[in-house]
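This part of the workshop introduces the protein records we will be handling. The structure tokens are whole numbers drawn from a learned vocabulary of backbone shapes. The record below serves as our worked example for the rest of this section.

===
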Amino acid sequence: MSIIIKIFLLAYLLVIVFLSILSVLWAMSLIFAPGCGHDKDQEVTFKELLANPSEYDGKGITIVGFYFQGFEVSVIAENLEYSGYAEGHLVPKSEMVWIEGGIPREIFNSLYLQSMMGPEERYGKVRVTGTFEYGEKYGHLGGYNSQIIPSDVVLLEWSRPAPQ
């Protein structure tokens, strides 16, 4: 085979390899590109979420707050505060978002436990990732304007505040 044919075949193979690499990179960019249905869950604060909840409706979010579960209550709130009804009794403070379906049992069992007001209540600091929904009535008796359907819940380190 002549040298010209060998050079031509080598150049042809290099072009094919180059085009194959480009097509794989292009396909990956379609799969992982923002705005193509594969967006990563957006980290938001309570302030951002509650200032414009319709912006996050139907989207995946991640938020850090305090999970509280008690009688007919399963919520995440920005803070907890002492209720004043019983010594050391903590309750959610500020706006609350319903947590649809609760949280995984292993996380739930690791939360702080209080029962001084009757029914057992659990609480702790968590990072919740899930789908945010807004615009209807959610939770017990439709008492909440928004909810998160959790896909992942992580218990965060936190020390219970000193009793007041």
In short: The CA atoms of residues 16 and 150 lie 46 Å apart.
